[in-house]
Amino acid sequence: MSPAKSHLYAWRSHKLSEYELTSLALDLFRDMDGQIKFWLEATFAVLVAAFLAGDRLSGGIRWLIVFLYGVASTLAGLRYVLTLRRNLSFRDRLLAEGYSDIPTDWWLVAPVTFLILIMFLGGVLGTIYFVSNPRTGRAGR
Fold first, then answer.
1. Residue 95 falls within a domain, yes or no?
2. Could you tell me which residues come within 8 angstroms of residue 37 by beta carbon, excluding any fewer than 6 positions away?
3. What is the total count of domains within the chain?
4. Are 22 and 104 in contact, with CB atoms under 8 Å apart?
5. Residue 8 placed within a domain
6. Whole domain around residue 106: which residue ranges?
7. Within a domain: residue 70?
8. Element (DSSP H or E) covering residue 82
9. I need a surface site. Which of 4, 25, 85, 124 has the fewest CB within 10 A?
10. CB of 87 closer than 8 Å to CB of 25
């Protein structure tokens, strides 16, 4: 491994304190929330733009929007999963080093995860359908 790469991964071999590991895990939770907020903002921006532009968008532009929104949503979903995996690795390391676990209401984790998944999939599919079908949902037009 090159010296630059070994420096980037030095935290893996360095013993971190309980405070440092917990802080890193909590920072990643905030990152996960930020990623959801960014995706929601992008979704509403695409929906509003498609609604306002409506029939004035050519087919090519409309499919370009659908494609780019699909790419952005896929990227947001993958980044969310990657951040979750990193967070779990910090939690595992916290436990492996004999520190106490991060206080979590585990009975809420499954419903929250399920609702995030439903919101994400429903939002992506609904937005793609709405943008690709300009007359849908526009009464009187």
1. yes
2. none
3. 1
4. no
5. no
6. 17-132
7. yes
8. helix 59-96
9. 4
10. yes
